[in-house]
Structure formats: C-alpha cells, structure tokens
C-alpha cells in the first residue's frame, strides 16, 4: 500500500518546475492528483498523460491564480471531478525583481505578483478548506528569502512569501481543531527552467549555500510528500527550509 492511497490532492501551478515534481511525487505515492496551470496547456496535458501512463488518476485544470474567482472555480471543478480534498499544495507563483528606487518599475507587473503569490493563495485555500476532509494537509511553497534578502531587487517577491509564512502560522491555529496541518517549505536555489543551475547567476547562487549546488525539484517534492503524508500529523504551523545550508 502506498502512503497516499485514497487521498485527493490539488497542486496549484503543478505543471512545471517544482510544482510538476510535486504532482509527480504525490501521484507516485498513490494520491489522485489534480493540478492547475495558467497558460501552458500543452505542457500540462503532457504531464497528465505521463502520470496516467504510470497508473495515476490525474487531471489538469486551467486557472488564473491572480483572480480569486478563478481560484474558487478551480476548487469547485476539482471537487466536482474527484470529491472532497485531503491535500492542498500551493505551488503557483511568479517571480518579479526590481529595486524600490527603480524609476522604470512596471507597477502592474508587481501588482500581479502580489495577486498571484498572496491573494490567489488565500482565495484557493479559503475555498479548499470548505471542501476539505478533517485531518487533511496544506503545504505552501515559499522561499528562504522570506527571512533574508541576499541580493538587491527581491523585496516585492520575498515580501509575498513572508506573507505566506505568516498565514501558515495563523491558519494552523484556525484549522487545528479539524486536525488539518498547515506548513510552508522554503527552498533556496532549485534547478528549474525559470532558474537553471547553468544560467548566468547559477555560480553565484551556488556559492551562497553550504553544498555549492542547486536542489533538484524532486528533493523539494520529497519534503512536501513527507509533510502531506501519514507520518507528519504532528507538524503544523512550521516553516521548513530546504536550502543546502543557505540559512545556516
């Protein structure tokens, strides 16, 4: 028997990068996996087909994580397809950089980041918990930058993730009576198409951590899988770094 047999999971932003690794790991652990995507329908369809070929029960759903109404519809559609949720992983997010004194900042872009990374997560979680089984699991994907800013220009981004860490602590209190655990994982550098290890800033990012390398997305997914699994029932309201010693 697999650890997540019989569980229904929703992974937002689950078609690419860390989100795709989480979708694949939860499916491999036996969960029925619904995952959302914003625009890359072909990528999402390919992942769903790959997971099905491995025996998973899965479906991709389009959603705009910057739009609270779309987030609520996403949850409604998943529940209508698969039933009440046991697991929610808030992985969808965008990364926009720029210093506070930059006269050419695209304020609309930064407003979209706030909507996607904070407002959308709140809207999705609010809708999900109304359709959640008692004893369920919620995990959000943050960043170690929520506690430190190692280089300029990331203030707006890390502030959104710091907000998620605060929500995590508060939601664990709200949902504790239902035995729903709420945690946040904070990765450091992770090798994805958006931030490749061999990219222009790769060597610099490696130099910031003790292991002098990027994480593989599967390593983050393994941590998430543990936190949503049966052995993590007494872990809640926690911030768990997975950063190769960046925060040491």
From TrEMBL:
A Pfam family hit: adh_short_C2
InterPro entries per UniProt: KR_dom (IPR057326), NAD(P)-bd_dom_sf (IPR036291), SDR_fam (IPR002347)
Keyword presence, Oxidoreductase: yes
Keyword Ligase: no
Gene Ontology molecular function: any one: oxidoreductase activity, acting on the CH-OH group of donors, NAD or NADP as acceptor
Domain Ketoreductase: residue ranges: 7-193
UniProt keyword list: Oxidoreductase
UniProt family annotation: Belongs to the short-chain dehydrogenases/reductases (SDR) family.
PANTHER family: SHORT-CHAIN DEHYDROGENASE-RELATED, SHORT-CHAIN DEHYDROGENASES/REDUCTASES FAMILY MEMBER
Protein name: Oxidoreductase
Native organism: Mycolicibacterium sediminis
The organism's taxonomic lineage, starting at the top: Bacteria, Bacillati, Actinomycetota, Actinomycetes, Mycobacteriales
């Amino acid at each position: 028997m697999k650890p997540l047999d019989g569980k229904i999971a929703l992974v937002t932003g689950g078609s690419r990068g860390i989100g795709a690794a989480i979708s694949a790991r939860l499916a491999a652990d036996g969960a029925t996996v619904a995952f959302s995507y914003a625009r890359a329908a072909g990528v999402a369809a390919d992942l769903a087909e790959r997971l099905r070929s491995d025996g998973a029960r899965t479906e991709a759903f389009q959603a705009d994580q910057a739009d609270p109404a779309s987030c609520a519809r996403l949850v409604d559609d998943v529940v209508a397809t698969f039933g009440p949720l046991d697991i929610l992983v808030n992985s969808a997010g965008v990364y926009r950089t720029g210093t506070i004194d930059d006269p050419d900042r695209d304020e609309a872009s930064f407003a979209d980041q706030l909507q996607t990374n904070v407002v959308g997560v709140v809207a999705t979680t609010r809708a999900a918990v109304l359709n959640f089984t008692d004893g369920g699991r919620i995990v959000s994907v943050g960043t170690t930058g929520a506690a430190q800013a190692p280089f300029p220009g990331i203030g707006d981004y890390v502030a959104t993730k710091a907000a998620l860490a605060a929500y995590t602590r508060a939601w664990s209190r709200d949902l504790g009576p239902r035995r729903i655990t709420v945690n946040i994982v904070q990765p450091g550098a992770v090798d994805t198409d958006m931030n490749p290890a061999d990219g222009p800033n790769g060597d610099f990012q490696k130099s910031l951590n003790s292991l002098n390398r990027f994480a593989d997305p599967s390593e983050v997914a393994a941590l998430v899988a543990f936190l949503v699994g049966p052995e993590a029932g007494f872990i809640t309201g926690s911030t768990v770094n997975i950063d190769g010693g960046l925060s040491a």
